[in-house]
């Protein structure tokens, strides 16, 4: 498609037939108005946009997310995959017609629910590694097989170092899984659903999203406060929300016409 051609950037789907204008907050920094385009009692939240592929950057992702979060202040929203651009108004309405029942069912599933994100990090890795060695006799034996010291530095044979490193890595992942599950067990009592996402680095052992009924947000908050207090010497938590249900619904629209 020609980069000069104008299309309709799609942010999310909501249940309303009333025309709405959410302001000049469209992606791309042009000040495009974000409005609704309806079919029956469903609407897509859209803005004008060039038919071009947006680079996956923090600026563009935040612009997309800000629109969805603004809409979510009033409506249950089904987020649509980043950089979905329809060629015309008719294309949007045809999509709503073809997938009407699917979108209605998803909106029903997500009604009165929000996503809450929890990340957990160990504050100090020294006691974590000490626990791993203490809990694993094989690692402890390899440690004892260390070669002669050079000053305070222990000189390890290459084979021993490689073997011990592999075992420590495996044991660290098990500990991440176990402690992550312990936190999730406390939180999932208030949740409808849960997603575990990839962790990054040694210190992060949990990256999870919880789908929670709006009426139970305070209960979830209270559990987070208890966890913060109970593990304040060991764990640092990052808690975000309420968010659109990105981890539970992210509508993908397949159409050869929209391939860029």
Structure notes:
The longest helix has 30 residues, at about 160-185. By secondary structure, the protein is an alpha+beta fold. The strands form three sheets. Strands 2-3-4-1-5 form a five-stranded antiparallel beta sheet, sandwiched between helices. The protein is elongated, with a radius of gyration of 24 Å. It has seven helices and eleven strands. It has two domains: about 5-110; about 115-245, no CATH class. α4 (about 125-135) packs across α5, α4 crosses α6 (about 160-185) and α5 (about 135-145) runs antiparallel to α6.
Shape, per Cα inertia axes = elongated
Q: What structural class do helix, strand and pairing data support? A: alpha+beta
Amino-to-carboxy terminus distance: 6 Å
Indicate the percent of residues in helices: 25-40%
Mean pLDDT: 86
* Low-confidence region ranges: 255-260
Major sheet, described briefly? 5 strands, antiparallel
Please count the beta strands (DSSP E, at least 2 residues each). Answer: 11
The proportion of strand residues reads 25-35%
Count the helices. How many?
A: 7
Rg over CA atoms: 24 Å
Element order: H for helix, E for strand: EEEEHEHHEHHEEHEEHE
Whole-number count of domains: 2
Strand order of the largest sheet: 2-3-4-1-5
